[in-house]
TrEMBL record:
InterPro entries: Methyltransf_11, Methyltransf_Superfamily, SAM-dependent_MTases_sf. Pfam families: Methyltransf_11. One of its GO terms (biological process) is methylation. GO terms for molecular function: S-adenosylmethionine-dependent methyltransferase activity. The keyword Methyltransferase applies. Keywords: Methyltransferase, Transferase. This is Methyltransferase type 11. It comes from the Bacteria. The keyword Transferase applies. Residues 42-132 form the Methyltransferase type domain.
Amino acid sequence: MINQSVWDNHYTRDRSRQQFPDENVVRVLRKNFAGKQHAVSLDLGTGSGRHLPLLVQHFEKVVACDFSRESLVIAAGSEVTAAQAALPNLPFAAESFDFVLCWGVLHYLQSADVPRAVSEILRILKPGGQVFLTLRSDSDTHLKAQLRSGDLATGHAELFTKSVAVALFQHFSKTTYGYIARQPLGEEGLVAHHMILAEK
């Protein structure tokens, strides 16, 4: 079970409130959703809401979903609908969304819940809809240190090999894979993610 109080506490800290969208999300939205009409998107695990302004530019309706109340307080705005829920059980009807963004979320679930969460994302996507997400790579060393001594110390995270990450999306019609790694300035640890863009 995910510890909600860990994440509520995490989002009370200014340094946890990222403000700018990831460049990979910017690229995918510009390429795949420029000029779309009447499209509906879900920011699943919205966190600080850093991707919401970008999503509002590309979609007619945007839903921000997180299980942290503190997160939704930060992310709340007049242009988005807020929903408090936790994976793998979402309160949305089947085929509700054209696009789901799930950035930096799934690796915090228990391992048994990750395939269920992917199935739930597949369920709520419209035919031809896409999900863009990240999973922490097994080469990541930064998150391990955070879980030992940072503000996520009582939290949980799973690290994934490339083959396991890709296999999670076998029931999607098309999957595109990418990998990002960086070493934060002045730190020893490596932040490494698998990126998956999958189409229903």
